[in-house]
Write a structure and sequence with these properties.
By secondary structure, this protein is mainly α. It is built from eleven helices and two strands; from the N terminus they run ααααααααααββα. Helix 4 packs across helix 6, helix 6 packs parallel to helix 9 and helix 8 runs antiparallel to helix 9.
Length: 237
């Protein structure tokens, strides 16, 4: 695998696990829902902190943790529904849309309640942006393919939350989705043998509808986002 050859063969990659832990703690505790700073400013600040190879590793870990914790939350919710009602819900990480179509009203969108304290519109959005901006460097510090799968997984969770999970599409939500799509395209372009686009992405790419995007502080519509068009122009290269 090219990423492993690059990682083993490059003497210029100097990673510091201790510093990575410190960066992760700082980003996790300083930012998020508790901060009084608006999410776009938080995102830019975190991007500035994660500006080297150790930061790139931390960004990859943030996305991975968010995907893993969201999956565990949904599985726990599905297990709870089964215990209470006898109804069995299937949770597939490669495609969450069937789960949300079947049981959306019974589910809680997991990205707003990650146990690690990561917030989708702060740390996760920033981490995704870091991965995209430094996609050619990813192969020097990690295997990009599993990470790309998790980027698509968070994108699936985000868009399913809009459609079935009563998640409001505001500018912060749209920024997360836009960063996820952009980063997926950048990592795809930097990967030798990328995985196939997952079913949820292929389903959304067939659409051509525009969703209203609202002001985070009120009901005013301030723009729109066409997920299908955005994905087609970014991922079909």
């Amino acid at each position: 695998m090219r990423w492993l050859r690059q990682l083993l063969g490059s003497s210029r990659v100097q990673l510091d696990p201790g510093r990575q832990q410190a960066l992760l703690r700082d980003v996790r505790h300083r930012y998020g829902a508790r901060s009084q700073v608006r999410f776009p400013e938080q995102v830019e600040a975190i991007i500035g902190v994660l500006n080297d190879d150790d930061g790139l590793v931390v960004a990859a870990r943030i996305v991975s943790e968010a995907a893993d914790e969201a999956h565990a939350d949904l599985q726990a919710q599905a297990d709870d529904v089964h215990r209470r009602t006898g109804r069995r819900l299937l949770v597939h990480r490669r495609n969450y849309r069937p789960l949300w179509k079947e049981a959306g009203p019974a589910l809680r969108w997991p990205l707003f309640a990650l146990p690690s304290g990561l917030h989708p519109y702060a740390q996760v959005t920033a981490a995704v942006a870091v991965l995209g901006s430094r996609a050619p460097r990813l192969g020097r510090v990690s295997d990009p393919n599993p990470l790309l799968t998790q980027v698509f997984e968070v994108l699936d969770l985000t868009t399913a939350g809009w459609e079935y999970g009563r998640v409001r599409v505001d500018t912060d939500a749209a920024a997360l989705a836009d960063r996820l799509i952009s980063t997926a395209g950048q990592v795809l372009a930097a990967t030798d043998d990328p995985p196939r686009l997952p079913p949820a992405v292929r389903e959304l790419m067939r659409r051509n509808s525009t969703l209203d995007v609202h002001d985070p502080t009120g009901p005013r519509v301030v723009g729109g986002i066409n997920l299908g068009a955005r994905m087609r122009e970014t991922l079909l290269v």
